[in-house]
Amino acid sequence: MANKVKCRKFQCWTMSITQLFGRTPKIEFICGECGKYNAKRAYTDNCYNGVELTCDSCGTINELPIHMR
Fold first, then answer.
1. Residue 28: enclosing H or E segment and its boundaries?
2. 20 to 30 A Cα–Cα from 31, which one of 9, 19, 38, 65?
3. Residue 51 to residue 39: CA distance in whole angstroms
4. Which are the contacts of 20, defined by CB distance < 8 A and separation ≥ 6?
């Protein structure tokens, strides 16, 4: 099982056309484990309890403090 850490830093737009297709705007974050930059989208159905995205470099799951209502 992969480790879970909190991301160091993240940013994203509040709106995007991809929300019509069930995806979040692009989320850019710095991995809390290795410090590498990542840019990904998540499915909006998975965002009600926070967002978890996997780092492309080290495979660690990063928890982002984003909650959709």
1. strand 27-30
2. 19
3. 13
4. none
- Tell me the three state secondary structure of residue 68: coil
- Cβ atoms 64, 10 nearer than 8 A: yes
Query: What is the pLDDT tens value at each position of the chain, 69 positions in all?
Result: 468 999 999 998 888 898 889 898 999 999 999 999 999 999 888 777 788 999 999 999 999 988 766
Q: Which two tokens stand for residue 49?
A: 């309890």
What is the value of pTM for the model shown? 0.83
Q: How far apart are CA 62 and CA 31, in angstroms?
A: 7
Using left for φ > 0, alpha for ψ between -120 and 50, and beta otherwise, residue 60 falls in: beta
| Residues sharing a CB contact under 8 Å with residue 14, sequence separation 6 or more, in sequence order | 25
| DSSP type of residue 24 | P
